[in-house]
C-alpha cells in the first residue's frame, strides 16, 4: 500500500490549517491520485502516531501493529518493530516480526528479522523454522551470506552449546554450493560450544573440499588452543604453501597465546626472512625475543623494525597512526631491554623518543625510579588521579602492584591488591593477583580461599586451577588433588607451557621420573623459562643425568641470572653456577 507513516503525524496540523487557507486562491496542482487508505485506517494510524508522540508507547505499538496486520504493509511492520526495540521491549519486537512473517510469508526481510531477534533474545531453539524459511525464500546468491552470518549473531549467547544443538541440523541439511559455507559455520559454532572433536572433523572436511582456501586454516588457528591436533593441519599447509604469510603470522600469535614462545619466535624469524620489509613482524620477533631474555636478538629485531618504520611512506591516516604506534612500542621495548641490562641511562633515552604519556610509559619511568631507589616517587607516578574512571583506576592499581612485585616488596603489593579487591569486588584478575601475593607471603590458606573464589566466579580460569595445583605440588602435599587441578587447567588451555610444567612437577613429586622428564622437556622446549629450567634440571638430576641437568641450569641462569627458584634449586643440589 502506498503509504508513508511520517505523513500521518502531520495530518492533524494540516487539518487545522485548512480553514485558514480556505479563502485563498488555490495554486495550480497536478491531478490528485486518491489513496486506497480508508477513513478508519487513517484514524487508526493517526491515533497510533499521536499516542507514540505523547509517550504512550504500549498503546501506539498495539494500534500500529493491528494496522500493519490489516494492511500487510511491510514498512509499517518495520516501524512497529523499531518502536518496540527503541523501547527495549524485545519480546514485543519479536511478536511484531512474527506477525510480519505470518502476514507476508514471502518476505525475506521478515524472516531475517525474526532470526535476528531470536538471536538477540537468546532463543536458539526457535531459530530453525524461520531460518529454513529464510533459506528457502532467499535468492541463491544471498543464502551463503545468511548462513555465515549466524556465528556473529550468536557470539554473545551465554549458551553456545544450545546454539550449536539448535542450528547444526539445519546446517547439516545444506547441499550443493551451500555445503562449504554450512560446514564452515557449523565448525565455528562447534568451536564456540567446545565441541572440539566435531569441529576438528568439520575442519578436515572443509580443507579437503577447499584445499587452497583460507577458511579451514582460519578455523584451525582458532581451534588450536583448545585442540592441539588442529596444529597439524596448519603445519601441513605451511609446509605445502610456505608463502601463506598471513597464516604463518596467525599461527605464530596462537603459539604465543599457548605460551610456546620459542616456537613462536621460530615462526616470526621465518616471516622476517620472507617479508623483510614488513616492520610488524620485526617488532613481533623483538617482543618474543625480549620475553625469552634473548637481549641481543631482541635488540637487533627491534632496531630492524624501527628502520623500516622510519622509512618515509605515503599512506592513509590509519596507516600513519599504525606506524606511529609501532615506533612507540619499539622504543618502550628498547627501554625495557636496556633496563634489564642495567643501562638505566639508555633506558631513559629510549623513553625520551616517545611523545605520549600513557600508563605503559609511566610504568617504565616508575621502574627506572624504583631501580634508583626512589620507590615512593615511582608509586606516586603510577597512582590514578581522583577523577579517574574505574577502568583507569583498576589499571593503575595493577601496575603499582606489579612494580612492587618486581621489587620483591610482596607485603606492599598485597596491601595494594587488597585495596583493589575491596573497591572492585569479584574482579577475578585482581583476586588472582592477590592470591599470588598471599602465596609469596606464606599465607597459603588465604591463597587457597582466593583462588577457589576465582574458580567459583570463573570456572574457565585455567590460571587459577594451575596456580592452586602447582602450590600443592611445590609444597609436596595433596598431590592427587594437585594433579586433578592441573589436569583441569590443561583441559582448558591444552599445551600451555607453564601448565605442562606444573603437571611435570607434580609427576616428579609423585615419583614418576620418566613421565616428569618427558613433560618438563615439552614445557621447556615451548618456553625456556628459568623456573621451568629449575624443574627440568632437578628431574634430570634425580634421573641420573647430571651433565644434562647442569646444561639446563646454565641455560636458565644465562637468561635470568637472578631467578630465585633456579638459584635455590642449584644451591640445594650443590650445583655450582
From TrEMBL:
One Pfam family cited in the UniProt record for this chain: TPR_16
SUPFAM superfamilies tied to this protein: TPR-like
Alphabetized UniProt keyword annotations: Signal
Keyword Protein biosynthesis: no
Protein name: Tetratricopeptide repeat protein
Superkingdom of this protein's organism: Bacteria
Claim: Signal is one of the keywords in the record: yes
Matches recorded under InterPro entries: TPR-like_helical_dom_sf, TPR_rpt
Species the sequence originates in: Pelomonas margarita
Amino acid at each position: 500500500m502506498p503509504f508513508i507513516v511520517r505523513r500521518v503525524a502531520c495530518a492533524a496540523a494540516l487539518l487545522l490549517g485548512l480553514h485558514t487557507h480556505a479563502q485563498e486562491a488555490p495554486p495550480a496542482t497536478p491531478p490528485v491520485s486518491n489513496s486506497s487508505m480508508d477513513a478508519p485506517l487513517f484514524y487508526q494510524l493517526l491515533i497510533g502516531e499521536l499516542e507514540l508522540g505523547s509517550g504512550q508507547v504500549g498503546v501506539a505499538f498495539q494500534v500500529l501493529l493491528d494496522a500493519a496486520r490489516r494492511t500487510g504493509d511491510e514498512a509499517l511492520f518495520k516501524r512497529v518493530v523499531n518502536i518496540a526495540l527503541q523501547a527495549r521491549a524485545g519480546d514485543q519486537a519479536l511478536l511484531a516480526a512474527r506477525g510480519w512473517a505470518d502476514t507476508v510469508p514471502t518476505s525475506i526481510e521478515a524472516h531475517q528479522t525474526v532470526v535476528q531477534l531470536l538471536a538477540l533474545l537468546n532463543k536458539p531453539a526457535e531459530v530453525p523454522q524461520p531460518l529454513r524459511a529464510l533459506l528457502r525464500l532467499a535468492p541463491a546468491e544471498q543464502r551463503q551470506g545468511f548462513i555465515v552470518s549466524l556465528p556473529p549473531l550468536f557470539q554473545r549467547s551465554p549458551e553456545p552449546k544450545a546454539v550449536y544443538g539448535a542450528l547444526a541440523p539445519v546446517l547439516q541439511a545444506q547441499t550443493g554450493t551451500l555445503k562449504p559455507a554450512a560446514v564452515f559455520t557449523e565448525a565455528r559454532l562447534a568451536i564456540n560450544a567446545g565441541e572440539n572433536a566435531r569441529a576438528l572433523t568439520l575442519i578436515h572436511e572443509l580443507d579437503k573440499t577447499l584445499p587452497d582456501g583460507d577458511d579451514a586454516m582460519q578455523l584451525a588457528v582458532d581451534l588450536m588452543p583448545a585442540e592441539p591436533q588442529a596444529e597439524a593441519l596448519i603445519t601441513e599447509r605451511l609446509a605445502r604453501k610456505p608463502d601463506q604469510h598471513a597464516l604463518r603470522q596467525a599461527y605464530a600469535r596462537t603459539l604465543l597465546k599457548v605460551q610456546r614462545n620459542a616456537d613462536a619466535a621460530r615462526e616470526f624469524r621465518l616471516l622476517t626472512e620472507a617479508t623483510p620489509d614488513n616492520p610488524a613482524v620485526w617488532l613481533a620477533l623483538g617482543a618474543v625475543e625480549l620475553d625469552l631474555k634473548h637481549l641481543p636478538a631482541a635488540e637487533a629485531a627491534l632496531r630492524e623494525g624501527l628502520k623500516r618504520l622510519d622509512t618515509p611512506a605515503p599512506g592513509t591516516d590509519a596507516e600513519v597512526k599504525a606506524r606511529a604506534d609501532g615506533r612507540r612500542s619499539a622504543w618502550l621495548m628498547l627501554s625495557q631491554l636496556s633496563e634489564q641490562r642495567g643501562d638505566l641511562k639508555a633506558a631513559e633515552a629510549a623513553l625520551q623518543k616517545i611523545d605520549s604519556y600513557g600508563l605503559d610509559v609511566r610504568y617504565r619511568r616508575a621502574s627506572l625510579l624504583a631501580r634508583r631507589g626512589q620507590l615512593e616517587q615511582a608509586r606516586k607516578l603510577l597512582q590514578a588521579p581522583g577523577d579517574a574512571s574505574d577502568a583507569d583506576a583498576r589499571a593503575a592499581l595493577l601496575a603499582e602492584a606489579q612494580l612492587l612485585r618486581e621489587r620483591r616488596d610482596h607485603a606492599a603489593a598485597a596491601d595494594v591488591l587488597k585495596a583493589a579487591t575491596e573497591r572492585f569486588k569479584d574482579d577475578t584478575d585482581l583476586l588472582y593477583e592477590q592470591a599470588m601475593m598471599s602465596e609469596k607471603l606464606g599465607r597459603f590458606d588465604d591463597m587457597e580461599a582466593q583462588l577457589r573464589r576465582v574458580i567459583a566466579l570463573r570456572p574457565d580460569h585455567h590460571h587459577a586451577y594451575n596456580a592452586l595445583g602447582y602450590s600443592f605440588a611445590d609444597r609436596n602435599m595433596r598431590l592427587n588433588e594437585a594433579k586433578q587441578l592441573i589436569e583441569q587447567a590443561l583441559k582448558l588451555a591444552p599445551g600451555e607451557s607453564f601448565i605442562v610444567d606444573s603437571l611435570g612437577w607434580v609427576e616428579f613429586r609423585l615419583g614418576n621420573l620418566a613421565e616428569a622428564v618427558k613433560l618438563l622437556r615439552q614445557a621447556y622446549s615451548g618456553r625456556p623459562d628459568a623456573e621451568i629450567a629449575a624443574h627440568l634440571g632437578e628431574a634430570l638430576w634425580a634421573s641420573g643425568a647430571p651433565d644434562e641437568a647442569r646444561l639446563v641450569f646454565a641455560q636458565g641462569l644465562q637468561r635470568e641470572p637472578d631467578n630465585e627458584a633456579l638459584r635455590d634449586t642449584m644451591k640445594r643440589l650443590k650445583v655450582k653456577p
